[in-house]
Structure formats: structure tokens, C-alpha cells
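Review box. Two proteins, two foldings.
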Amino acid sequence: MKGRYFAFHPGLCVLLIPLGAIAHKDGAPCARCPRNAHCTNASSCRCDPGFTSLSGKVIFSTSSEVCTDINECGPPLYMSCGSLAHCHNVEGSYYCECAPGHELLSGGTKFQSEKENTCQDVDECSSGKHQCHNTTHCINVKGSYKCYCHHDWVARSRPLHGLNFTICEDVPFPSWTSPSGVNSQSLSRFFDKVQQLSQDFKPALAKNTIQDVMQEVDELLETPGDLETLAPSEKHCVATHLLVGLEDVLRVLGKLLPNGPLTTHAPAGTGPSVVGLVSTPGMSKLLAEAPLVLDSKQQTVLREHRDFLAGGSPVLLSDVVSAFVSNKDTQNLGSPVTFIFSHHSVTPGPTQKVFCVFWEHSQDGCGHWSTTGCRMAATGDASTTCQCSHLSSFAVLMAHGHIQQEDPVLAVITYMGLGLSLLCLLLAALTFLLCKAIQNTSTSLHLQLSICLFLAHLLFLTAIDQTKIKLLCAIIAGALHYLYLASFTWMLLDGLHLFLTARNLTVVNYSSVSRFMKRLMFPVGYGVPALIVAISAASRPSLYGTPTRCWLHTDKGFVWTFLGPVCTIFSINLAFFLMTFWIVKNKLSSLNRDVSTLQNTRMLTLKATAQLLILGCTWCLGILQVGPAARVMAYLFTIINSLQGAFIFLVYCLLSQQVREQYGKWFRGVRKAKAEPENYTLSSGTVSDASKHSAALHSSNSSHPPHLERLLPGFTESPVPKP
């Protein structure tokens, strides 16, 4: 039977042998190993890769053991997938996947380890993978995209083809998005909330929407977060964007408000008009260190007052208040709008000034404080009244500067020098008028010059600061303009006469020069300055007188109606002086060969220098008051030109032998009159004869030719040897 059995089942024996071998092979499953495990030998089991036993044993033999999945993405393993990727656990294994909105360079999304990570952002907008409706505008963001509506459209969520799409509709909620180029999470969250408010907006709930918008703005400014870490220029751009956007939102939503304090109705059925005032106290955090730009008029006034120069960053004293109406065209109002700002008590110091300002938007989307169109009507310790000819975002700020005080030393030098010049000019004028021995064309020129300078200096000292009465100040400025121009014109005539006389030294034709100057000097000396002042006053009468001085205004180059002629005159006189100096020096050297050359040169140099000052050539020092040498030039200009009258008296009176002899006769006559008052009578004929005798005696003892004596004493009176 056994033989039959084995004979009848030969294939079965062959089949059972390999099955038994498989059943005991290492790693093969067996009936007594649990799920997710396999046999290691005939009596032991082991969990599959990616699983572990509850007991923690690697090899076990009990059939009640359980193999559980190992979470490679959780503790304690935490398999790293790298940046922009996430780990995903699956039963018995794991995989890495790029974060949403990212993909591998190969185009796939899954990988196994950090070394294989090449995840990068996907631009859904340009690739067409976005789900934005055709009424929206797709903007790619890191890892995703956003659908925004165009300007003056609002987003609505509506079902379309079974999906919820963001659809833009032209409803009265203005677009207000984050400014470009500013990276701020706080600002992004704020505009996300604004976008949500626009999506949920209903015209019937406009009041609630306005309150929500204001609340979001307050929260942003109260806790700005990373906005405080932005650069000052970026903060100013954000502030500009917030102010402009808030004004636009409130202007549009205000039209939907029911009739109330903020709404008035325009006539002729033009629809509701909105008037609004919005105070944003926290805006000062973004507007710190914002620059201040003064308008041209205020710059001129401050420059003329010389008491303030803007420096440093201004400090906000009040809240920033935005004023708006329905009509955006509010740049040139028919009448100014008055604002009264309350602020903390402050008393400006000597280097501080309070300004009414508004936030002016620049083309780059940022802005600055400006005073154009605004003026301060009144200010107190805790309030300031401003008047502006336009609507915008206003505030009161205090700017710091530094005082530019006048140099007290220069003031003392000016008053002392001009006082001495007045005395000398008076004595010189009396000398030219009473001393018959020296009266000629040259003396007439010096007399008119002395009179004009005397009146100009006297008016300057007594009336330059009389600015209280505007008309009187303008008259004083015009008189000073005329007198100083007349003084320079007589200096020009003096220089011309000096040159013509020197040129004709070789020919005895002095009489022709004298006749020419007599016909020319009075029409030119007084007529040309009168013509210049008349034209200036007729064209710009309002520019005579400044807030601090009764002098010419600097606006529109008006001061050049004085500086232009002056520069021309001293340039011409300098040329006349150099040519005259050269001619006289050569003539004297040929006439006085026996005189010490050193002595002659010293005397000629001294008197020529004085003549240079008399001709007004040193006024060019006023133009050189720039740069590091400005202070030195200011002292030289003040000292030299305030003593011009003293130089005239010195050269034409004290250094003239004829005048000194006449002074001696006058003094002797005075002493004699005091000694013998009852017997002394002074005859003008006697004085005249004595003067003529003295002049003749001087002429006979001089080796100079007669026509050379008629030159200015500063050039001709050099030592001459006696016969």
C-alpha cells in the first residue's frame, strides 16, 4: 500500500517539498507572525521595515506581538526635507513634497531626502495655473498668488461652475492695496483685512465699514510691528499711501452715509457732498524725521530776518488731520480754510519756530512736509490757528534752527566809522565851499560827492531800521537807493576827470577838459541815478523795503538795480585809476630827477591808495564775502568803506598845502579876533588877496607845470627841491 501511495502521488511529494522549504525560509511570513512582520527562523518573527513592535523588541516569538508604523516625520526621527518642503508619513515609509505653490526644478513635487530638494516658487500668474476670474488681476506672492481687483472695483465671492470665484464689481469701494517695494508683514495683514472689508461691503452698512476701516488704521498705527524697522524714507512712503488711501476710501464711502453731521447736499441735484476731518494720532511714528520744505516767500522772510535757518528734523506738535470733500479739486480754494489745532503746551526756544504744514505727495510715492499755501494765523502755548488755501493732511510742527545774530563788533565799527565819516564829510564840504584858493572843476566834483555821501550815511544811520510804517520804509529805501547811486556816479565823474587831466599833461589844454566836465557833471551826476530809481520804482514799487531793513528787496533780483551800476562804476574807476597812476608816475619821475626815488615812490603810493578808496573801488570786497574768507572780507569791507569820508577829508584837505595854509590863516584870524575883538575886522577881499598871493608864491616855488597842479592833490603834492 505504501508503494501504491507513493506511486499514485508522485507529484504531490514533489510539490510538498518546496512548500516546506519556503515555509521555513528566513524572512518569509508564517502563520504565527503578526501583520506587518515576517519570520526570521522557525520560531522567531521580525517587524517589516518602517514598522516597530509595541514591546520594542526587534525579534520576538509570541504571536500576540503587534507591529506598528514608524512616523519618520515626527519625533524622535524628524526626517529633514529642507526648505520649502514638508515631510509626509505613509505606512511603512515617508516622502518629501514641495510646499504648496512650489515645485522641483524637474517639474515634480515628491522626493526622498533633503539632498534631492530643489523646490522653487511657482509663478501661477504667468504660467496660467491661477484660478483668478477674468475681472481680477493676478499677483504672484511667495508660494501662492492673489486675485486683486482693479482701481475702484471691489471683490465679490460668487459660485461659478460649481466653484467659488473672486469676481470684481464696479461698486463704490475704492481700491486700496499695499504700496509696491515695501516688505512688511504688518502692512500686508492690514491690507488683507481691508480687502476682506471690501469683499463684505454693502452700501447700506457704509457707516459700519467706515468704523471698521478706522479701527484697522488705528490698530496698525498703535502696533506697527515691523513697520518701525523700515528706513525713514520707506516710512514716509507708507504714511503717504495710508493718508491718500484713507482719504479716498472715506470720500467714496461718505457719499453712502445717511444724512448726518458729515453730509450736506449740493444744489441743482448734483448729489451728496461729503466733508470730512480725520485725525490719525499714531501717524507721527511713520512721519518721524520727515523733511520740511518752506515755500519761497517764507524762505525769503527768514533769510532777511537772519534769525532762523531750518536744520535737523522737525517735531510734530499736533495730530495729523486730513480734511477732504467730495470734489478732489481743492488745490486753490476761493477763501482759506481755518484750522485750530490743540497740542501739548510748548514754548518755542530761540532756535525753534512753529509752522503750519501739510503733507505734500511727491512723484515717487513718498512725500515731505510743506508750508506752501498755509500760514500760521496765531499760536499759543497749547493751540495754533492755521489758514490754508487747499485741503490735504495738516499738522503743526516745530522746526529747529540756529540763530544768525549780527556781529556786534561789525555793528560798532559801522557806527563809529560812519560817524567819523559824517564829521569829515561835513568839514570837507565846508572847505570846498569856503576855500576860494582851491575852487575849480575838481573841487566841485568833490563837493557834490561829499554832499551825497553825507546825506546817504546820515539817512542810513538814522532811518535804516524804520520798518513799522511800510510806506515810510519804502520812501527811505528809495532815497538811500538814489543817494548811494548818486555818490557812485560822482565817483565815476571824479575818476573820469582825473584820467582826462592826466592824459592832457603833455598838452596845455586843461581848459577844454574843465569846460567838458562842467557841461557833463550835473546832468550825469544827478540825472542818471534819478532815471535808474524812477524805472525801478515804476516797475517794482513793492520791492522797496524789507521786513527788517528799509532797503531793496532780494526777490526777483531787484537788488541788482543797485549792485549792477555799482559793479560797473568801480570796474571803470579801477581802470581809470590804473591808467592815471601810470601816467602821473612817469610824469613825476621825469620832472623830479633830483628827488630821492624812494621818498617819491612812498608818497605817491600812499596817496594813490587813498585815491583808490575814494573812487569806490574797494566796494568789490562786498562781492568777495563768500567761503572761508567771508568774515575777513566783511571786516575789511566795513572798515574801509565806512571811512570813505575820512579819506576824502584826508586827501583833499589835510594833504593839500593850499588848504593847510588857508586853515592856518583862519585859525590865526580866529585867535587874533579873540585877542583884539574891538579892533579886528576880517575883509573877504583881504582873505582873497592873501589866498591869491599864497597860491602865486606856491606856484613860483614849485617845479611842477601849472596844469599838473590842477590834478588831485593826492597825486601832485610830492616833495620838490627848492631852487
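Next protein.
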Amino acid sequence: MEEPICEEAILAEEIPEVKPAAMVNKNGVKAEAATASGGGGVASGGGGAASGFSGTKIFTWFMVLALLGVWSSVAVVWLDLVDYDNVIGKLSAYDADGDGDFDVEDAKVLLDEKEVKTAAPKKEMLKKEDKKKAENIVEVPVPKPEKTKGSLLFNGDQSPGEVASKKNRTKGVKERPVSLVQKEAKEESAVEEQTEPIVKEVIQTTEGTEEEGQLPLNPSQEQQAPEGESPDAVGTPAKSEDATEESFEGKLAVEAGSFEAEAAVQVEEKAESVPEPEANVESVPELETVPQLKAEAVPELKGNAEDQPEDMLKYKAKKKNPKLLNTFEKTIKAEIDAAEKLRKKGKVEEAVRAFDTLVQQYPQSPRCRYGKALAEDDLAEKMRSNDMLQKALSTYKEASELPNATPDLIKATLKKRAERQQFLGRMRGALATLEKLVQIFPEDMALKNDLGVAHLLIGDNKSAKRVYEEVLAIAPSNGFAKVHYGFILKSENKIAESIPFLRDGLESGDPGTDDGRFYFHLGDALQRMGDDSAYKWYERGHQRGHFASVWQRSLYNVDGLKAQPWWTPKDTGYMDLIKTLERNWRTIRDEALSVMDKTTGLFVPEEENLREKGEWGQFTLWQQGKKAGESCHSVPKTCGLLERYPEATGCKRGQIKFSVMQPGTHVWPHTGPSNCRLRMHLGLVIPKTGCKIRCTNDTRAWEEGKVLIFDDSFEHEVWQDADSYRLIFIVDVWHPELTQYQRQTLSPI
């Protein structure tokens, strides 16, 4: 009996076997698709099993290799199998951009492919409409402030000397403390090319070289100014001052009086500091034998960056990296960099030790010695030690005198040395250092400008004038030289001649020209010539932050103090002092009259160049918070009345004095040096008519036995057109809003 044939079997024989298409699984292994049949399913299943095994195997090997790599890396780091410092040190030899490592940017520089980026958009990218708009833009002139009758004056007590770095705000702003030894932001790249100086404070060049920053110099002592004290009395530029201004070992006194103060760089000097004897003045050895290194010619660049030829732009970029290493020092660059890294991280003690070790190993290396000087300089600042700073000065000198020092290192070393000498108040030593620099680099106009400032700091206007004439003969558009030359001309009372130099210098926008003293003196010169455009420059000075307002143009300021030209006794809070003065005015007058005999020489003529004409004499009792010599012996009762009022006798930014003005006298408009005081005028002998004083746009007259109170940081002007003399008693008091701490710590003026 035949076995029946299954229908499914027949179908299986008739249908050919279809080979499953190959598929790729996620592990990258080909697997065959399962068929619907049982056999196919088994086959498929078998194939699937096989392919699954294969994928797992590959994944397993992948994990094993990965783990081996991880553990190998751990072993290399943990067991220190590779000397990374050595590798990095070798790569740093190719550090073309000066950032301390070798990266893509260095490669671009080495391949000469580095592109100079420009901030301004390309001109050709502008649409025609935009071009037209740009061409049609016109600067809106600064509106003139409301004018008053009579000319505005220039500040007598202030001077360009005090850099207007500290900006006075009329109201609502507190004075920002300025530490004596402020440090500028650190720069990883080698050097800031040049921060122009400003005669006595302004004027200090801060060209750095591989140093993190320089300490700004504080104002030097400023001399008193007469009744209306003016910045013409060469002083220091304005700044919002901090309560404490000290050199490393003592409080600073502000000294002015000559161009040194007004045109000078801010210099931190020790109060009561021992004057530098001539023997200590550092001479310049072998000045005549110093080899002159020709400065590299710098192509003049004008216009925007996109307009500059490519080679010019590359030059500018290249100029930022001074060459401080000689051929040998490049082989020990890694060691120098390691020590320098400690210094830049603030580990100054370790840096000093590291550089000292390098100096012992390589005694003929100028760069190692320069690094040691910088580290000692930083340590002196940290310790606030003048002795350590003196040690740094010696090391700077040693570094500059070693053979094989590069020109850039010589320049950087001597510039830094001159700056620190000025910081210590050793102006003649700094002058000698700068003279040496100028002799080595005769084509460097910036160094000549610094030399001019150094002459101004010691009151040698004649030599400074000669230096700036030399600069302008070579570089007639040098704005820095122009403003200082104009300032000197004005100090010589060559008012009309000074104006174009001051104006052109300010308009140049060159570094070192944007200083409140120059805005002030240009405005003052214009006023004296009857030119009302003076107010435009005062307004610009205000907009630049140098003046609290067009009217209030003092330069030594504390921010946030109440500012108003005229005050009432109640406003001041000094009612007891005012009542004492008014009750005893006859006693005060009689003592003043007893010493008015010109033969006694007690009344000294005003010497601040504040008078247009006439005679004006003063007899000072207190100055900068101290009695003026034996003056009180002549007027004992007056001094006795004031002894119990420290707001007056302790006012380090003011004076107490008698003032006599003869008929026919006119005092130019001017402002006092500081907003930290108020000025009281007690009338003693006042003619019935012809005597008046204007403060801003408000004019008043004195009365015998009455006190007038005004803030002399605002512009004021005096006329004496009577038939007889006018005698008043001037008492300066601290601004009532100053704290006791501020009164104790503000520097004298």
C-alpha cells in the first residue's frame, strides 16, 4: 500500500529553494535572512547563531584593545615614562607668537600664513548708500556752556602735573581708592609697546618688556598757590585720589610749584623723604663710550588697518615681540620660561630663587639677570620694601651692561630702571638713565619724549624745551612733544604761541596727550586771548572724564562730594569757627595791619601767574596742615583763635593766610587744585565799591566782618577796581563730607 504523499512535500519539491539575501548587522557581519520554511528556519537559525558568535568575538576583541590602551596611558602617566617637559621645551623653541607654547597659530606664523585681522569692515563691502551716509556724517559741535562776563580762568592750583587719571564726579560717586603701588594688568605677551609719559604723572612711559605691568607714579609734592591757586603753577595732573597714597615706606607729599609738578609724571615719593644728595645722583658711566645701536626704522603707518600694505601690517604685529634672548639664551629658554612662569603666577620668592640660580649658572646671561631684576622688583612691591627695590635697580643696571645683551633687552631694562628711580623720587638718577638710553637709541622719539619729561621733573624747563624742539624738528607731527612744548611756552607766558601746539597735540590723539592738564591750559590760554572756544575744550575735557564739569576743573579730587560754588555757614557745619572769625574780626584785622609794612617782607607777591595786572600779596600762617615757620609770632592772637579748629589748621589741602590786593588788580579766572576743601574769606578792610569776586556765573562782594564761603575748585575771578587796598583773611577747611580717615590719609597739596 502506497504511502500517501503529503501535499506539502510535493509543493516543496516544485518550489526551488530561495537563497536568503545577505544582510549586514550592526557589528558589520553579514547574516542571512530566515525563510518561512522550517528547514530554512533552522538553517537561518544556524546562520544567525554563527553570525552572532562572530559579532560577539569582534566586539570582545575591541573591548580588550580599548582596555589595554587605557591601562597603557595610565601606566605612562603614573610611572612618568615620557618626559613631557622636555618635549614641550623643545616645541617652545618654535613658539612664534610668544604665547608660551607651540600651536596652530605658531605654525601659521612660521609658514608666513598668519593673517592680520582688522576691526574695521572692508570699504568695498559697504553699499553705495552706506558710503554716501558715511561721507555725509558731520560731527556735531559741542554746545558752548552758558558764558559769563569776563574770561574764564585757568586753574592756578592745579597743574598738568597731576595726571587727570582720577576723575572727579560732581555728585553721587565715591572716590575710588588708588593703592600706591597699583599694578597694571599682566600681559602674557612680552611687552606693551609704549604708554606715553606725561610730565610728572602723566608722562611716564609704560613701555613694558616682558613685565606684567608697571606701577603708576603718584603725584609729587605740590606747592601752595595763591588765593586763587591755579594749575599754572606747574603741578601734577588731576586724579580722583585715594585716602592713602604712600611710597613703600611713607606717605606722599604733593609737591608742585614748578613745571616739575604740573608737567610731571606722577611720582610716589616718601613723605619727609631725605632729599637725594648730589653724591647719590647716579652718573652715567662711559656715556661717551656707549655704542650707539641704530634703531630699526619704523615705517609710518597712516589710516585704517585695511588700508595698510600687508608688509606694514606684518611689521606692526612683529613689533609687539621684542627680542630679549641672545643666541645662547635660546638654548636655555625652557629654564628661563620656567622661572618666568613662577613670577607671572605671583610666586615671587620662588621666582627670585629660580632666577638667582640661573644667574649663578649663566653669569653672562643678560636675560637671566633681567628676569632676576623683575622678580626682585615684584618682591619689593609685595614686601613694600625700598631696600629690595634698590637691589632690583642694581640688578637692572647689571643686566644692561652685560655683553651680548640684545638692543631690545637693553631698552627694556633701562626704561624699567628709570621708571623705578622716578618711583623712589630719584629724579636725577632717572634723568641719567634716560640720557644713556637716548644716546644708545638716538632715533627713538619716544625715549626723547621721556627724557624731556625727566628734565621737567627736576624743574629744568630749558633743557626740556630743547629736547622737544629736537623731537619736533625730526617728527613735526609728534603730538606728545607738541602738548609738552606748548605747556612749556605757556609757563613762559608765551600765551599766543602755546595755543597751536597745545591744540594740535590734543587733536592728534597720540598716547600721552589725553590729559586734563593740557585741556585746562589750552582753555586757559584761549580765555586769556579772549577766545570763547576755550569752553569747547573745557567741555571736551569734561566729556573725557578729566573735569567734573565745565566749571569745576580741579585735578586732585575725591569723587562723590557735594559740589556747589557758593556755600552758607549752615551748609558747612562749621558754625562755631565762622562765629569765632566774625566775632573777632577786628582783632584779626589789627594784627594783619601791624605786619603789612612792606619792609617786613611778610607779605609775599603772588607768583602763580594768576594776575593779568596789579599787585597781590599774601602772608601765610598755615600751609598743608602745618604752621608756616615763625609766622604766628607776628600775629599770636589770630593763631590762638584758630588753634582749636582742626578742620582749618589740619587741612592738608589748603592754607590759612592774609591777602592784600592793591587797586587796579585783575586775577584771571582760575580754579583751585582740589575739591576736598572749601574756602572762607573774612572781610577785614573792604573799599565801599570796586571789589568783587565771581564764582561760576554768580558775582558777589565782601563785607567787613562777614565770611564768604565758596568752593574754589569751581572757576572764580577777582577784580579790584577801588581807590584803596582790599584786605581779607583766607581760611581753607576740609570739605564737610570727607571722613576722618580721608582727612588723615589724603596727601598734602
